[in-house]
Amino acid sequence: MQHTLVLVKPDGVARGLTGRILARIEAKGYVIEDLRLVHPERALLEEHYAEHQGKPFFEPLVEFMLSGPSVAVRLSGDRVIEGFRSLAGTTDPTTAAPGTIRGDLGRDWGLPVQQNLVHGSDSEESSARELALWFG
Ligand code: RTP
Ligand code: MG
């Protein structure tokens, strides 16, 4: 049994897609163990995205994540880390496969950073670190 951190990012919350996204996660059979609406501080986001510091999209990414609240979810299930990332689809929502959250609900808006609706931890190490950050 694994745990992962899922975020419905500010674009997903602002577009009113939280319920649809959570319904897809539940329909897949994963279990929501904790859930909260978070208005993150810059320091939290800089730690969350530490691996991307120095990249050209880092600052726009942090600004985007500060633009509104996210819904943070502690999700559990067998192989949920790779399972949720498969459900989410690839990073670029324009080319993410249809049938995925990003592929069905997202697209490129011509903005400086990919607004792609969701985040999911990419390894057991990341999920432990990220769950501690967002849920304490
Ligand atoms: P995530 O971490 O959010 O689940 O997404 P990911 O693994 O698919 O993407 P990652 O490479 O970790 O990038 C983190 C987030 O940064 C934004 N991004 N924008 N070139 C760009 O404009 C660009 N590249 C990445 C996206 O919001 C991505 O989810
Ligand atoms: Mg990532």
Automatic annotation (TrEMBL):
Names of the cofactor(s): Mg(2+)
Xref: Gene3D superfamilies: Nucleoside diphosphate kinase-like domain (3.30.70.141)
UniProt keyword Nucleotide-binding, yes or no: yes
Record-level Gene Ontology MF annotations: kinase activity
Pfam families (UniProt xref): NDK
UniProt KW DNA-binding keyword: no
CDD domains named in the record: NDPk_I
Positions of ATP binding: 9, 57, 85, 91, 102, 116
Keyword annotations: ATP-binding, Kinase, Nucleotide metabolism, Nucleotide-binding, Transferase
Family: Belongs to the NDK family.
Name under which the protein is recorded: Nucleoside diphosphate kinase
High-level lineage: Bacteria, Bacillati, Actinomycetota, Actinomycetes, Micrococcales
